[in-house]
Amino acid sequence: MLLDQQYLFAPGPTPIPDRVKAAMNQPMIAHRSQEFPTLLEDVATRLMPVFGSENPVTVLAGSGTSALEAAAANVIEENDEIVVVVAGAFGDRFASICETFGANVHRLNIEWGAACKPEQLEEFLQSIPKEIKAVFATYCETSTGVLNPIKDLGEVVKKVTNALYIVDGVSCIGAVPVDMKGWNIDILVSGSQKALMLPPGLAFVAMNDTAREVIRNCKAKRFYLDLNRYLASYETDKSTPFTPAVSLIYGAQEVCRMLEEEGFENVIKRHLLLKEMVREGLKAIEIPLLTSDEDASPTVTAVRTIDEPSKQIKKLLKDKFAITVGGGQKKLKGEIFRIGHMGYCTPFDVIKVLGSIEMTLKFLEGKDVLGIAVKRAEEVWMEHV
């Protein structure tokens, strides 16, 4: 075994294409040079269809959480009434961020492993007697592998309230369809290290004109994450108010080229195929999944570990096969592991991880499962060839 060859199937960070690494490796330029505005404008506009945005996408130097915080810090004023859909660890993080900025946060708690149903959100919103300023939701809840029905939830938000609709797309943008105008999304945020095939370090914020007006008039104090500064810098000279992550932005430019070459509709189809291969393969060897097929994300699959041997799968995958998967978070710690299948991932990669899981189960429990998950995944793949 060449143990220096590591295989990354975590739900982020994800593998980086060689051509993206090469793009990030080109000579550094000054971020106040004549070249940088051309680079930034190219990336900000080429990301528009990926975010389903009618405006250029704002690029920050920071993690995905900085984008979540920017969305809250630029909208929330002290004692604003805010609703957050909490269906996992990252919905909980969104709520905590909002509380930090002084909001009165109303948490709509959804069972971890299930998606929020539109009727649940509608009933919850109608139960709040005060005017709601914003509703925060998570498109893909990374901690559970759930994809929330963001379009349907957006219809409910605008039907029941005049609130902004703010969506965390960190672990799925670049792999799923999205239409900010058609889905009533006012602010959509994401990060670089998931489906967008980049290292950690970039955050993205897409805003419609309604959100920009609210941000412009928000009196809350902020500095580095003040989106007004970013919008003004971009509109004035296609620049950023603070030092940008230049090399990562070069990488983002190459990612945009890759998405365009594959065709974004094909990118979406590929991720749906990867999801089906993973899920059907695991079902074939009777490994329980956390989410239903209907609620499952195309970018990450959560696998239950219901007995003591299965709780060792994550460690043995790493020790014996150099495969890294994600563990459970918060109350799901030790109860699941998570397989990331997003970004720079192909059906061949799925075959690799499923084959390793088969061998791990054979080693742990003596189960005669060799070839079963792989065969079922190959059958699914053949249906799409």
UniProtKB/TrEMBL annotation:
It comes from the Bacteria. The modification N6-(pyridoxal phosphate)lysine is found at residue 194. Residues 7-330 form the Aminotransferase class V domain. Pfam families: Aminotran_5. SUPFAM superfamilies: PLP-dependent transferases. Its cofactor is pyridoxal 5'-phosphate. The keyword Calcium does not apply. Belongs to the class-V pyridoxal-phosphate-dependent aminotransferase family. This is Alanine--glyoxylate aminotransferase family protein. It comes from Neobacillus novalis. The lineage of its organism: Bacteria, Bacillati, Bacillota, Bacilli, Bacillales.
